[in-house]
Amino acid sequence: MWEVIHTTLLTLDWKEIFYILIGTCLGVVTSCAILFLERFMDKKGKLNIFYKRSLVRGSSGYGWGFDNTGDGRVFFIVPVVLELQNTSNTTRVIRDVSLLLCNEKTFVAKMKQAEKMHTKTRTGSTVTGEQDYYFGTEKGSYSFVLEPRSIQRQECEYMLVIPASTINEKLFNNVIIRYHDEKNKAHYYKMMNVPDCWQRKHYDVDEEWVLLERKQKINIKTK
User: Do 103 and 167 have their domain in common?
Assistant: First the structure.
């Protein structure tokens, strides 16, 4: 009699253990699924980058374009206002927002990211005013951290200065925006075509925001 009861109890114990294990496994799977779904929903959303080509700071009202320095050099300048929109529930990183100059798809040069500009106003030979303009974030960084569900505006200015004698080595017709994301992946977007490269001329500013679209991404072939 004792052996029969003992065998029955053992059988019941193994069944209980089996059900407990099944319940535990289902609980773990359910928790993982919920966690995965929450993270997926947090990441759902877009990172949108809008831009406007603006007036050159400290200028007499001219926009992006080509000019000379008066000492045998020429320069290409592009002042840009960026509006960065993060519609997801996670923090996003946009690192090293750069302008690359390309001849078709061949890399030509990277424009310098301006950190600060100091201007002076003169009346005749007398300095009547001075002003400092700052670009990017603190210390002139062109890397930005976007909080969840946020919009951030940044003023940037890019310039390339070269000797006039080297113009033929720096011919280009496309301007590309490049940045790296939080995984250090590079993203490339075509910003604009540039006519009459290195001809002294300034162009109109943008009245409306322009959205960088993924379908405009191109692959750059470096020399």
Answer: yes
Q: pLDDT (tens digit, 0 to 9) for every residue of the chain, 223 residues total?
A: 444 444 554 455 556 665 666 766 666 555 544 454 445 444 457 899 999 999 998 767 789 999 999 899 999 999 999 999 999 999 999 999 999 999 988 999 999 999 988 776 667 777 776 788 889 988 889 999 999 999 999 999 999 999 999 999 999 999 999 999 999 999 999 999 998 899 999 999 999 999 998 655 566 665 5
Q: Are residues 72 and 94 in the same domain?
A: yes
**Domain of residue 181, residue span:** 45-216
Q: How many domains does the chain have?
A: 2
Report how far residue 69's alpha carbon sits from residue 67's, in angstroms, rounded to the nearest whole number: 7
Please say whether the beta carbons of 112 and 100 come within 8 A.
Answer: no
The alpha-helical segments, DSSP class H, found in the chain are: 2-43
